[in-house]
Amino acid sequence: MIRMLDKSCPSLRRVHPIGGTQTRRMGNVPKIVDHDARRLELVEVTWRVIAKRGFDGVTLRDIAAEAGFANGALKPYFPTRASLMRATFTHVFGRTNVRIEAATRGRTGLDALRRFAVEILPLDEERLDEARVVIPFWQAAIHDSELAEVNDEAMLQWRESMRGWILEAKGQGVLRAGILPEVAAESVLTFTLGAQVVAVLDSDFNDPSQLLEQLDLQLLLLGSS
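^ that's the sequence the OP posted. Answer follows.
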Protein backbone atom coordinates (compact mmCIF):
# COMPACT_ATOMS: atom_id res chain seq x y z
CA MET A 1 0.00 0.00 0.00
CA ILE A 2 1.24 3.48 -0.82
CA ARG A 3 2.02 5.46 2.30
CA MET A 4 0.49 8.91 2.44
CA LEU A 5 2.33 10.37 5.42
CA ASP A 6 5.93 11.49 5.36
CA LYS A 7 6.63 12.95 8.78
CA SER A 8 9.57 15.01 7.52
CA CYS A 9 7.07 17.78 6.72
CA PRO A 10 5.23 19.23 9.74
CA SER A 11 1.93 20.02 8.04
CA LEU A 12 1.07 18.36 4.75
CA ARG A 13 2.97 15.29 3.70
CA ARG A 14 3.34 13.77 0.29
CA VAL A 15 2.56 10.37 -1.14
CA HIS A 16 5.55 8.11 -1.58
CA PRO A 17 5.02 4.75 -3.29
CA ILE A 18 6.92 1.94 -1.67
CA GLY A 19 8.55 -1.07 -3.22
CA GLY A 20 11.84 -1.78 -4.85
CA THR A 21 13.57 -2.73 -8.03
CA GLN A 22 13.83 -6.27 -9.18
CA THR A 23 15.84 -7.93 -11.89
CA ARG A 24 13.99 -10.15 -14.32
CA ARG A 25 15.68 -12.21 -16.96
CA MET A 26 14.44 -12.33 -20.53
CA GLY A 27 16.61 -14.92 -22.19
CA ASN A 28 20.17 -13.97 -21.39
CA VAL A 29 19.48 -10.26 -20.97
CA PRO A 30 18.52 -9.04 -17.47
CA LYS A 31 15.70 -6.49 -17.35
CA ILE A 32 15.48 -4.09 -14.41
CA VAL A 33 11.89 -3.56 -13.28
CA ASP A 34 11.33 -0.45 -11.19
CA HIS A 35 8.51 -1.51 -8.89
CA ASP A 36 8.00 2.00 -7.53
CA ALA A 37 7.44 3.40 -11.02
CA ARG A 38 5.26 0.47 -12.06
CA ARG A 39 3.03 0.75 -8.97
CA LEU A 40 2.69 4.50 -9.50
CA GLU A 41 1.81 3.92 -13.15
CA LEU A 42 -0.92 1.48 -12.15
CA VAL A 43 -2.55 3.73 -9.55
CA GLU A 44 -2.46 6.62 -12.03
CA VAL A 45 -4.28 4.46 -14.57
CA THR A 46 -6.71 3.21 -11.93
CA TRP A 47 -7.89 6.58 -10.68
CA ARG A 48 -8.41 7.80 -14.24
CA VAL A 49 -10.47 4.72 -15.06
CA ILE A 50 -12.59 5.10 -11.91
CA ALA A 51 -13.21 8.77 -12.73
CA LYS A 52 -14.54 7.78 -16.16
CA ARG A 53 -16.38 4.53 -15.41
CA GLY A 54 -17.17 4.58 -11.71
CA PHE A 55 -15.92 2.38 -8.90
CA ASP A 56 -18.02 -0.77 -8.75
CA GLY A 57 -17.49 -1.98 -12.30
CA VAL A 58 -13.70 -1.62 -12.42
CA THR A 59 -11.78 -4.92 -12.35
CA LEU A 60 -8.11 -5.83 -12.31
CA ARG A 61 -8.59 -7.06 -15.89
CA ASP A 62 -9.83 -3.58 -16.88
CA ILE A 63 -6.82 -1.89 -15.29
CA ALA A 64 -4.38 -4.34 -16.87
CA ALA A 65 -5.89 -3.73 -20.30
CA GLU A 66 -5.86 0.05 -19.87
CA ALA A 67 -2.21 -0.04 -18.75
CA GLY A 68 -1.22 -2.36 -21.60
CA PHE A 69 -0.46 -5.31 -19.33
CA ALA A 70 -1.26 -8.96 -19.86
CA ASN A 71 -4.13 -10.23 -17.71
CA GLY A 72 -2.75 -11.25 -14.33
CA ALA A 73 0.37 -9.08 -14.65
CA LEU A 74 -0.85 -6.82 -11.83
CA LYS A 75 -0.58 -9.58 -9.23
CA PRO A 76 3.08 -8.93 -8.26
CA TYR A 77 2.19 -5.29 -7.52
CA PHE A 78 -1.38 -5.52 -6.26
CA PRO A 79 -2.46 -9.07 -5.44
CA THR A 80 -6.11 -8.07 -4.90
CA ARG A 81 -8.51 -5.46 -6.19
CA ALA A 82 -8.89 -4.13 -2.64
CA SER A 83 -5.15 -3.47 -2.33
CA LEU A 84 -5.17 -1.55 -5.60
CA MET A 85 -8.21 0.49 -4.55
CA ARG A 86 -6.61 1.44 -1.22
CA ALA A 87 -3.40 2.50 -2.93
CA THR A 88 -5.34 4.48 -5.53
CA PHE A 89 -7.41 6.43 -3.03
CA THR A 90 -4.32 7.18 -0.95
CA HIS A 91 -2.61 8.41 -4.09
CA VAL A 92 -5.49 10.77 -4.93
CA PHE A 93 -5.35 12.28 -1.44
CA GLY A 94 -1.61 12.64 -1.88
CA ARG A 95 -1.98 14.45 -5.22
CA THR A 96 -4.17 17.03 -3.50
CA ASN A 97 -1.68 17.42 -0.66
CA VAL A 98 1.17 18.13 -3.06
CA ARG A 99 -0.85 21.00 -4.56
CA ILE A 100 -1.85 22.28 -1.12
CA GLU A 101 1.74 22.27 0.08
CA ALA A 102 2.84 24.32 -2.92
CA ALA A 103 -0.11 26.73 -2.74
CA THR A 104 0.21 27.45 0.99
CA ARG A 105 3.99 27.61 1.28
CA GLY A 106 4.91 30.92 2.92
CA ARG A 107 1.25 31.84 3.49
CA THR A 108 -0.47 32.29 6.81
CA GLY A 109 -3.88 32.77 8.40
CA LEU A 110 -7.03 33.07 6.29
CA ASP A 111 -4.96 33.52 3.12
CA ALA A 112 -3.46 30.06 3.60
CA LEU A 113 -6.86 28.63 4.52
CA ARG A 114 -8.38 29.94 1.29
CA ARG A 115 -5.54 28.58 -0.79
CA PHE A 116 -5.96 25.21 0.92
CA ALA A 117 -9.67 25.08 0.10
CA VAL A 118 -9.13 26.14 -3.52
CA GLU A 119 -6.94 23.07 -4.12
CA ILE A 120 -9.76 20.79 -2.93
CA LEU A 121 -12.68 22.48 -4.67
CA PRO A 122 -13.51 20.94 -8.09
CA LEU A 123 -12.64 24.05 -10.10
CA ASP A 124 -11.33 22.26 -13.19
CA GLU A 125 -11.63 18.88 -14.90
CA GLU A 126 -8.66 17.43 -13.03
CA ARG A 127 -10.14 18.24 -9.62
CA LEU A 128 -13.58 17.12 -10.80
CA ASP A 129 -12.07 13.75 -11.66
CA GLU A 130 -10.57 13.57 -8.17
CA ALA A 131 -14.03 14.26 -6.75
CA ARG A 132 -15.47 11.49 -8.93
CA VAL A 133 -12.98 9.13 -7.30
CA VAL A 134 -13.30 10.18 -3.66
CA ILE A 135 -17.11 10.14 -3.64
CA PRO A 136 -17.34 6.36 -4.21
CA PHE A 137 -14.34 5.96 -1.90
CA TRP A 138 -16.34 7.49 0.96
CA GLN A 139 -19.21 5.15 0.24
CA ALA A 140 -16.88 2.13 0.28
CA ALA A 141 -15.19 3.36 3.47
CA ILE A 142 -18.49 3.16 5.35
CA HIS A 143 -18.18 -0.63 5.35
CA ASP A 144 -14.40 -1.07 4.98
CA SER A 145 -12.34 -0.32 8.08
CA GLU A 146 -9.06 -0.07 6.16
CA LEU A 147 -10.48 2.50 3.74
CA ALA A 148 -12.00 4.35 6.69
CA GLU A 149 -8.55 4.49 8.29
CA VAL A 150 -7.09 6.00 5.10
CA ASN A 151 -9.79 8.66 5.17
CA ASP A 152 -9.39 9.35 8.90
CA GLU A 153 -5.64 9.82 8.47
CA ALA A 154 -6.13 12.27 5.60
CA MET A 155 -8.82 14.26 7.41
CA LEU A 156 -6.76 14.48 10.61
CA GLN A 157 -3.90 15.91 8.60
CA TRP A 158 -6.15 18.51 7.01
CA ARG A 159 -7.80 19.42 10.32
CA GLU A 160 -4.44 20.04 11.99
CA SER A 161 -3.33 22.35 9.18
CA MET A 162 -6.64 24.23 9.11
CA ARG A 163 -6.69 24.78 12.86
CA GLY A 164 -3.15 26.08 12.68
CA TRP A 165 -4.03 28.67 10.04
CA ILE A 166 -7.16 29.74 11.92
CA LEU A 167 -5.13 30.17 15.11
CA GLU A 168 -2.72 32.32 13.09
CA ALA A 169 -5.67 34.43 11.93
CA LYS A 170 -6.72 34.84 15.55
CA GLY A 171 -3.22 35.96 16.50
CA GLN A 172 -3.24 38.43 13.60
CA GLY A 173 -6.47 39.93 14.93
CA VAL A 174 -8.47 39.10 11.77
CA LEU A 175 -10.66 36.33 13.21
CA ARG A 176 -14.15 37.28 14.31
CA ALA A 177 -14.45 37.46 18.11
CA GLY A 178 -15.93 34.41 19.79
CA ILE A 179 -15.20 31.97 16.96
CA LEU A 180 -13.66 28.69 18.12
CA PRO A 181 -10.85 27.51 15.81
CA GLU A 182 -12.01 23.88 16.01
CA VAL A 183 -15.56 24.79 14.97
CA ALA A 184 -14.32 27.08 12.20
CA ALA A 185 -12.05 24.37 10.82
CA GLU A 186 -14.86 21.82 10.78
CA SER A 187 -17.17 24.30 9.06
CA VAL A 188 -14.72 24.97 6.23
CA LEU A 189 -13.83 21.29 5.93
CA THR A 190 -17.51 20.30 5.70
CA PHE A 191 -18.01 22.92 3.00
CA THR A 192 -15.05 21.79 0.91
CA LEU A 193 -15.94 18.09 1.11
CA GLY A 194 -19.59 18.80 0.37
CA ALA A 195 -18.56 20.94 -2.59
CA GLN A 196 -16.91 17.88 -4.15
CA VAL A 197 -20.27 16.12 -4.11
CA VAL A 198 -22.48 18.96 -5.37
CA ALA A 199 -20.01 19.98 -8.09
CA VAL A 200 -20.36 16.50 -9.58
CA LEU A 201 -24.10 16.00 -9.00
CA ASP A 202 -25.50 19.55 -9.22
CA SER A 203 -23.07 21.52 -11.33
CA ASP A 204 -25.63 24.08 -12.57
CA PHE A 205 -25.56 25.68 -9.13
CA ASN A 206 -21.97 24.82 -8.25
CA ASP A 207 -19.74 25.76 -11.15
CA PRO A 208 -16.21 27.05 -10.42
CA SER A 209 -17.23 30.71 -10.06
CA GLN A 210 -20.13 29.81 -7.77
CA LEU A 211 -17.93 27.58 -5.62
CA LEU A 212 -15.38 30.38 -5.19
CA GLU A 213 -18.17 32.79 -4.20
CA GLN A 214 -19.38 30.26 -1.62
CA LEU A 215 -15.85 29.84 -0.28
CA ASP A 216 -15.37 33.57 0.06
CA LEU A 217 -18.64 33.79 1.99
CA GLN A 218 -17.39 31.09 4.36
CA LEU A 219 -14.22 33.09 4.99
CA LEU A 220 -16.10 36.39 5.26
CA LEU A 221 -18.12 34.89 8.12
CA LEU A 222 -14.86 34.06 9.90
CA GLY A 223 -13.25 37.45 9.43
CA SER A 224 -13.32 40.35 11.88
CA SER A 225 -13.98 43.06 9.31
